[in-house]
Structure formats: structure tokens, C-alpha cells
Design a protein that fits this description.
- The complex is a heterodimer of chains A (305) and B (47).
- Chain A has 16 helices and no strands.
- Chain A is mainly α.
- Chain A has one domain: Farnesyl Diphosphate Synthase, CATH 1.10.600.
- In chain A, α4 packs antiparallel against α10 and α7 packs antiparallel against α8.
- Chain A starts with a helix and ends with a helix.
- By secondary structure, chain B is mainly alpha-helical.
- Chain B has one domain.
- Helices cover 64% and strands 0% of the residues of chain B.
- Chain B contains two helices and no strands.
- The longest helix of chain B is centred in the C-terminal third of the chain and has 20 residues.
- The chains are: A mainly alpha (305), B mainly alpha (47).
- Chains A and B meet through α3, α4 and α16 of A and α2 of B.
Amino acid sequence: MTTQTIKSNNFSLASLDWRGLINLTKPTITLLVVVTVVPGMMLAAGSLPNPWLLLAATFGTYLSSSSSAVFNHILDSDLDVIMKRTKSRPVVTGKIPSSVALVFGLVLGVLSLVILYVFTTPLAAAVSLAANIFYAAIYTLTLKRHTVQNIVIGGAAGAVGPLIGWAAVTGTSIGWPAGVLFLIVFLWTPPHFWALAIKYKDDYAQAGIPMMPCVKGLETTRKQMFLYTLTLIPAITALYWGGVAGAIYFITSMAATLYFIWVAFKLYRTKDDKYAMPVFHYSCLYLFIIFGSLAIDRLVQFLGN
Amino acid sequence: MSIKKKLHQIILGHSQTFHNGYRYWYYLVFVIIFIILLAVSYSKQGQ
């Protein structure tokens, strides 16, 4: 399927680029969000959640996050076409027409809402919908294009996983442990994203996106990244001191956080941007370690009771 | 290459062994944990 066939309106379902469709959902980022749902559910339940509820909440969140990603591709296509990193995205190249992407995003969004509403709780569906609207309308169209704090504030959208998980179990309120998990992802986002922004700063500058390295400079960005990693210490330890997580989580998450601080510090101290992408790659693994260790910690605790 | 250096490369995604796979190996770990959770949760139902 070539761009020419798309542009000449010869698009048909049979010629649909399924790989492009999957890429629209940003599967790696989406799975990162899903990873944060499970511990939120375990903390809310105080035991192992019902397996069907677990499946419904994670699958619903997966679809919801995928829907957000699709809308992001559509709304950002005017910027993506300028940037080297994103100019080969399916909507930009025409492999997936905007109209098809729009329908795909709507189907995913509606399906996620139905699953969360029917099989979990209305509150979980409401939190998910609010995050989607915030990400697409407020972050993508406004924050990203107008403020240097774009990904700091926008990080809230990616941090809702634990809130959805908690709401899926309780249905009435969201407890402080879910708030702490939200905070961990929220504080994790700037060093994660700015590491990428350092590597692609010229790309972002060319597209006129006010990312931190373009607006405030590399030195300030490296310093802010390091400071954000430091703020993770109180957030990480709060669950242990609050009595909702045990030693497995505490030791593992502290070790992972100290290493995160170290790689961020190395970037800051050496002023060498070759250390930016290692920070980015480790930050992805970091989130898995934090939420994975919490899930294992709770599992061991529940099985011991 | 030392084990320490190899491990470091795998963690940070620079390993040729795990070429382009750095994003995926821990997703697999998550899926395994998730399946264990589902299985244990399912087996505990009704107890």
C-alpha cells in the first residue's frame, strides 16, 4: 500500500496497514500505563482482586490508553510531520488516513468505557474518560504547544493508572495509597521525557514545541531531571512508612530509585548528553521495577496470610 | 566482555544480544507476573 493510493482515496479495509494501526496505539507506552493499574487494585482490595475484575480493569485501561494515543497521533500530525523522529508515523505518511484513525480511536475509547463501566465501576470509567480528555484536549492541543511545563502537567494523564485500578475495586472513593502511586508516576515523567527531549532537542525546536532543553537550555534540564529523581525518594518510601507495602517493595524500590538518581546525576555532573538516552531507557525499566516489586510484595503478603 | 558490562548494556538497552528488545524483555516479566496473579486469584476464589 503506497501513500499515493491513500491520497487518491482508494483506501479500503483490505488494504489497511494493521501494523500501522497497532503503532497508532503506542503499545509500549500503553503497556507502561497498564503496569501501574495492577498494584493500585491490589492495595485497594487489601487482598488479591477478583481475577475477572483484574482482567476487565487492565484490558479496559489498555484500550483507553490506546484510544488516547490514537487521538494524539491525529491531533499532533501537524507537528509530527516536521520532526525527524515522528515524520514516519502512520497518520503523517498517510498509511492510515486521519478518518480511519479517528474511527479507530473512537471505537477503542467507547469500548474501554463500556468495559470499565459494566465490568468494573462507573468511577473507574469516569477517571479513565477524564484522563483521555485531559491528554487529548488539554495536553496535546494546549500544554504541549504553549508551555515549557508541558510534560510536567501533562504527566498527570499518564499517571492515572493506579487511580483507575483503585476505583475499579472500590467504586466510591480513591484512597491515599493510589494518590502516592499517582505521584510516583507524575514525578517520574519529567526525567523520563526530558531525557528524550535532550536527544531530540533540535527536532523539537524545529517544530516550535517549547520543550525544556529548547527553552531553558540543557544545563537547566539536566539539573531539573536530577532534582525530580530526588523527589521520588519520599514518594517511594511513603507506601512503606504508611504500612501498605512491605520489605520486598521497600528494598527493591529504594535500590532502583538510588540507581535512577545516580544515572541522572551522572548526566548532570558530566554535562555529556550521551548519558541522556541511558537515563531514558532506565526510566522505563524503573517504572516496571517499582510497580512490579509492589505487586510481588503484596502477593507474598496475601499468600502468607 | 565482563558480566557487569553485559548486564549494564541489557538494562540500559544497548545490548546487541537484545537488539531492539530492551523494551520488551521486562514486558514479558510483567505478563508472567500478571498471569501468576490471575492464576493465584482464580484459585483462591471461593476459599
